[in-house]
Amino acid sequence: MPESLVGPWAKDKLDRLDKYLNAYTTIMRKQSWCSGFAYVDAFAGPGRHEVRHKEGTQRLQNLLFSVATFSQQDEGQSKFIEGSPRIALEIKFPFSWYVFIEKHPARVADLQYLQKEYRETRNIVVRQSDCNGYLLEKLVHNPKIDWASWRAVVFLDPFGMQVPWSTLAALGQTKAIEVFLNFPVGMAIQRLLLRAGQFTAKQREKLDTYFGSPDWYDVLYPVKPNLFGASTVKVEESGQALLNWYRKRLQKAFGHASKAALIRNTKGGHLYYLLLATPKKKGLEIADDILSAGETAE
Ligand SMILES: C[S@@+](CC[C@H](N)C(=O)[O-])C[C@H]1O[C@@H](n2cnc3c(N)ncnc32)[C@H](O)[C@@H]1O
User: What does DSSP say about strands 150-156 and 36-41: parallel, antiparallel, or unpaired?
Assistant: First the structure.
């Protein structure tokens, strides 16, 4: 029984991840100085998802029409897709280690099953945990990992604002970790950023923690003079404005931040941006190429 339902756009995200991971290990396996390179899926999910069809119409059609008709409509569309852990396990040249972190117990059980399935060929660690604590303690500050000779790609694929800036800053400080991340600007963040720009202290604190700075407010709500003094008005294209600002912060923390691919839902709504933060120029060039197909932000 599948553990998770995703929209059809998840395939776009996973195809781009697949391309980047393939390029990464193709290069890293030739680096004789490198002790090893790990893939850390911090929001791993169950490893396989059912693709949600529009408002259940496919299911209804399946009842009303013959199987043949349904198959024809469904042609070229797979009902299930492999999630990011399986994508990473299946690349041509594997990582030295795979770490799958997931909070939800049933999904952890699925990941443990995956671990057994690949036990002969892949080194896999599965952890049920909040990823932020794990990333700091067991990855960034783990005394057994020498970041002078180890490398890692961390995939951050949250539904919402579960990754505070402090986690990204710590990952960037290693100068050895790259982060392929989902910046959930359309999904989670915009819902909090109301037009009027009025926030409670608690709301502000949540956003400050996420962005690692209070400056998001000035980016989104510039003060405009008017007849009666001044007022704050939310900028047009606020998602893009926020992305540009956040990317600059990633550039400072990691060295480079790639172009960002905009992932939309089937109605055209903005869901999130995908981008890479990396200390390596080569990583940037590859990610720019992979993420610039389709709609991007420079
Ligand atoms: C968008 S899904 C991940 C999908 C997966 N990356 C893929 O592409 O197949 C997000 C997952 O993160 C898990 N999750 C949510 N908060 C978490 C946290 N703080 N630490 C670790 N996992 C978390 C959820 O249970 C969910 O399975």
Answer: parallel
Which tokens sit at 96?
């030295």
| Protein residue with least CA distance to atom 12, ligand 1 | 43
Residue 220: strand, helix, or coil: helix
Mutational test site, ligand 1, from 80, 102, 134, 156, max ligand atoms within 8 Å of CB = 102
Nearest CA to ligand 1 atom 3: 45
If pLDDT is split at 50, 70 and 90, which confidence band does 18 have? very high
- Cα–ligand 1 centroid distance for 3 (angstroms): 12
Domain extent listing, the chain = 5-47+83-186+238-297
- C-alpha span between 17 and 128 (Å, rounded): 23
> How far does the centroid of ligand 1 lie from the alpha carbon of residue 121, in Å?
25
Long-range pairs for 89-94: beta carbons < 8 A, 24 or more residues apart: 89/114, 89/118, 89/122, 89/124, 91/18, 91/21, 91/22, 91/25, 92/22, 92/25, 92/26, 93/22, 93/25, 93/26, 93/29, 94/25, 94/121, 94/122
- Using a 6 Å cutoff on CB, does residue 157 contact ligand 1? yes
Q: What is the tens place of the pLDDT at every residue in 125-174?
A: 999 999 999 999 999 999 999 999 999 999 999 999 999 999 999 999 99
Q: What pLDDT was estimated at residue 76?
A: 46
From the CB of residue 282, how many other CB atoms can be counted at a distance below 10 Å? 12
What fold does the segment set 5-47+83-186+238-297 form as a domain?
Answer: Rossmann fold (3.40.50)
| Cα(227) to centroid(ligand 1), Å | 49
Between 48 and 101, where is the model more confident? 101
Q: What is the separation, in whole angstroms, between the first and last Cα of the chain?
A: 41
